[in-house]
Amino acid sequence: MISNIIATTHSLIPSSITAFPGFYVENVVIRDMIIQCKGGGTETDAERVVPEMERAYPENRMFGHSLPAYGLYFRHARNITLDNILFNRLEPDSRVTVYLEDAHQIKIRDLRTDEKEPTISEINTSGISIK
Known about the structure:
Layout: E1 2-8, E2 15-18, E3 25-37, H1 43-47, E4 69-89, E5 96-113, E6 120-123, E7 126-130
Parallel strand pairs: 1-3, 2-4, 3-4, 4-5, 5-6, 5-7
C-alpha cells in the first residue's frame, strides 16, 4: 500500500509500476495522493510505443525521456486499486492521465485532475472498474 503522498514531478516520466512480459506486479493499493505534474507532454509523447526493456530494469530512465501518461503508467500489472488521487498540471499535457497496458483487475475510484476529466488509455486490459 502506498498512501498519504504529496509529490511534485520534474520530468515527463510519471510514476510507473511495471513488470516483465509473462510476470505481473500484483496486489498494489495507491490511495490518498496529490501529485503536482510538470505537464508539457506532446502528441508525440502520447502516441509513443514504449519498448520492453528487461535488461535495463529497474532504471527509471530505461524507457527514455517520457511515457504516454502524465499521471501513472502501468504495464504488466494485476489487482491494482487507485483511490482518491488528484493530479495538478503546471502546463497543459497531451498525454492521458493513466496508461494501462496488460493490466487486469484494476479498480479506480475518485481519480481527479485540475482542469478536465481524467483520461485513461487501456491496451490489452480486463476487469477495469472506474467510479
